[in-house]
Amino acid sequence: MINRYTVIGQPIAHSVSPDIHHVFGVLTQRHIEYTRTEATEATFSNVVHDWKERGGLGCNVTMPFKTLAMDVVDRVKPCALRAGALNTIFMHKDGSLVGYNTDGSGLMADLRHSQRVDPADRRVLMIGAGGASRGVLGPLLDRKPRTVVIANRTESKAAELAALFEQDGPITATSIENLSAHAPFDLAINATSSGLSGDELALPEGLFSDNALAYDMVYSNTDTPFMTWARAHGANDVADGFGMLVEQAADAFVIWQGVRPKSRLVYPRLTHLRQ
Ligand code: ATR
Predict the structure, then answer these.
(1) Which residues pair with 151 in a beta bridge?
(2) Which residues are catalytic?
(3) Which residues make beta-bridge pairs with 34?
(4) What is the pLDDT of residues 221-259, one digit of tens each?
(5) CA-wise closest residue to 170 among 113, 126, 109
(6) If pLDDT is split at 50, 70 and 90, which confidence band does 200 have?
(7) Which among 1, 91, 116, 255 is most buried, taking Cβ atoms within 10 Å?
(8) Is 136:191 a contact under the CB 8 Å cutoff?
(9) How far apart are the C-alpha atoms of 161 and 127, rounded to whole Å?
(10) Mind listing the domains of the chain with CATH numbers?
(11) CA 234 to chain centre
(12) d(CA 90, CA 74)
């Protein structure tokens, strides 16, 4: 049986999700066909339903449709409700569509297993207060960090996001200018949609504790501006979002196929995506 999946986004031509799911299929001995599908805001709903009609068993949803997708599914799982967005749809045999979000669990899996950083009892900085940030805050707070500080260019958006998650753990909002008052951090995550280039986003000095990890949620084969900046300003370690991409895909694969490909077997087969 061919298990058909796709990733829907705009733009989508450079998505590496098909390569990742191909490896998962090989390792778990499932016959997976995983394609890329382009949509617009106007066509997104039809594209999803059309995929189901054509026998698709599920799809991933990426930028810029993750929030819109919440209105397209019949049921939303708590992980997606909390994130306010979804990235995975399970298409049931009865025709119903169920939405999940694996971004946060994917980030946590990468932090713990590849980066060897458990946010538990750590001081965590989250830069940015948009969808990317909201998508991961729930699972991050579940790890019981000592504190999470959300810093955003527009402070009011950080405050709104902190209020949304205040039941879930110790979370504070600040502007980027006032960030120093909360430093140092053991883990700093860049969840802004901007590169940290030129004078676009000027972070203060002294952000990092000894042994801190600076993590950019963006996937890039060269150091991102945030990674370069963090290395030069005292971060002990830096990482881009490739591992998060792989782990969120693995979590989607578990939802669809009920089996998790082993990370230690997956990464050596994906080295071509890192060149
Ligand atoms: P996403 O879904 O990728 O998070 P978003 O909801 O548009 O996208 O949010 C983008 C985030 O990146 C916001 O936190 C935004 O800050 P503002 O709320 O102040 O707009 C942040 N961001 C984008 N460009 C930025 C820049 N040049 N400097 C600082 N922050 C930036």
Answers:
(1) 127, 174
(2) 66
(3) 5
(4) 999 999 999 999 999 999 999 999 999 999 999 999 999
(5) 126
(6) low
(7) 91
(8) yes
(9) 12
(10) 3-101+243-274 (3.40.50.10860), 117-240 (3.40.50.720)
(11) 25
(12) 10
Query: Does the Cβ of 192 fall within 6 Å of ligand 1?
Result: yes
Using a 6 Å cutoff on CB, does residue 241 contact ligand 1?
A: no
Q: Give the span between the Cα atoms of 173 and 80, in whole angstroms.
A: 22
Whether the pLDDT of residue 266 is over 60: the answer is: yes
Q: Stretch 132-160: mean pLDDT, rounded?
A: 97
Please give the Cα distance from 17 to 175 (Å, whole number). 34
Q: What is the DSSP string of 80-128?
A: HHHHTS-SEEEE-TTS-EEEE--HHHHHHHIIIIIS----TT-EEEEE-
Q: Which of 65, 125, 126, 192 to mutate to test the pocket of ligand 1 (most atoms within 8 A of CB)?
A: 192
Q: Which residue has the tokens 């952000």?
A: 207
CA 91 from chain centre, in angstroms, equals: 22
d(CA 187, CA 80): 24
**Tens of pLDDT along 61-93?**
999 999 999 999 999 999 999 999 999 999 999
Structural contact between residues 159 and 173, judged by C-beta atoms closer than 8 angstroms: yes
Report residue 161 as tokens: 């996001």
Residue 199: is its pLDDT beyond 50?
A: no
Name the token pair of 122.
């750590």
Residue 195, pLDDT score = 65
Report CA(170)–ligand 1 centroid distance (Å): 23
Give the pLDDT confidence of 13-30 residue by residue, as tens digits.
999 999 999 999 999 999
